[in-house]
Design a protein that fits this description.
D-Maltodextrin-Binding Protein, domain 2; 34% strand; binds 1-O-pyrophosphono-5-O-phosphono-alpha-D-ribofuranose; binds adenosine-5'-triphosphate; globular; five-stranded mixed β-sheet; 9 helices; binds magnesium ion
Length: 280
């Protein structure tokens, strides 16, 4: 039985369960449950703190896990990213009191408050910098105002929490995070192939739509250049002489522009349908 770690709480918890549900797996119905067995798919899910998930997977006690890229880096354990799940997106950034300093080169020698000391230490080592890292559990934005640190390094999504605390970001993000599927480094993951294919199917279904339209046969090359599909578009004859019907998967972002361009080219009966799932 495949054993998989899922966040039990926090930002990643609900969307992690949702992507698994969309991929056909059973998920807990009571948020207090800590284990859910899916006998039909031969998978067992363990609900754990997102921060602990890399530890269980890195030690080999669980086969796979869903966690944040920043949490994986922070843990420093031998687990690798197997699939980007495309939710829980955030950056990890330096933030300082407005007007204090502006360049990330100036962090050497300063006191840095963070809940992610592993990410910060990795950056300092890579940039040959020394600084005091003050490890906190959360609400890190308060640390500067309370005198514990000169700057912070934290997760930034909308930036609203920083603004409220009178802080501004400096420099480039230390990393860009999102939810990822992880497995122990160097382990044979062939038993996870079906789960990964199912998750990839959900991701494609979320990111693509099916576009269908009718177009004059002499405009087909122009039309299919706009809608090349993933492999190749399906072209079928129409009863109407000189016209064909085309079907192709197109990225959801940009579909309105594609429809406009097809219409301007002369295509008609342009229809968009959601894809609920797929295997490519
Ligand atoms: N707005 C956000 N705030 C915090 N974490 C976020 C946010 N958006 C995405 N994430 C990601 O969620 C993971 C942190 O989840 P975690 O459950 O530890 O913290 P949380 O969602 O802030 O919950 P809590 O602080 O209540 O425990 C990280 O991978 C982080 O990048
Ligand atoms: O850029 P924003 O959209 O404001 O989101 C980022 C903030 O949200 C999280 O805090 P959370 O509320 O989880 O509290 P915590 O610091 O105790 O984890 C995170 O640690 C940042 O503080
Ligand atoms: Mg938090």
């Amino acid at each position: 039985m495949l054993r998989i770690a899922i966040p039990n709480k926090g930002t990643l918890s609900q969307p992690a369960s949702q992507i698994l549900r969309d991929a056909g797996y059973r998920q807990r119905t009571d948020p207090k449950d800590l284990i859910c067995r899916d006998e039909a798919n031969n998978v067992e899910f363990f609900y754990l703190r997102p921060r602990d998930i890399a530890t269980y997977v890195g030690s080999g006690d669980l086969d796979l896990g869903i966690t944040g890229r920043d949490l994986l880096v922070d843990s420093g354990v031998p687990a690798t990213e197997m699939l980007d799940l495309n939710f829980g997106g955030a950056t990890f950034r330096w933030a300082v009191p407005t007007g204090s300093f502006t360049s990330a080169d100036e962090i050497g020698g300063k006191r840095i408050a963070t809940a992610y000391p592993g990410v910060v230490q990795r950056y300092l080592a890579e940039h040959d910098l020394k600084a005091d890292v003050v490890r906190l559990d959360g609400a890190v934005e308060n640390a500067v105002r309370l005198g514990v640190a000169d700057l912070i390094a934290d997760v930034v999504e909308t930036g609203a929490t920083l603004r409220q605390a009178g802080l501004v970001t400096i420099g480039d993000p230390l990393l860009r995070s999102s939810a990822i599927l992880i497995g122990r480094a160097g382990r044979d993951h062939s038993g996870a192939a079906q789960l990964i294919r199912r998750l990839q199917g959900v991701l494609v279904a979320r990111n693509y739509v099916m576009l269908a339209y009718d177009v004059r046969a002499d405009l087909l090359d122009h039309a299919t250049a706009l809608t090349p599909g993933i492999e190749s578009p399906t072209v079928s004859p129409l009863h109407r002489e000189g016209w064909v019907a085309v079907e192709a998967m197109v990225p959801r972002t940009g579909m309105h522009r594609t429809m406009d361009e097809l219409y301007e080219l002369g295509a008609r009966a342009i229809l968009v349908t959601d894809i609920s799932n797929c295997r490519l």
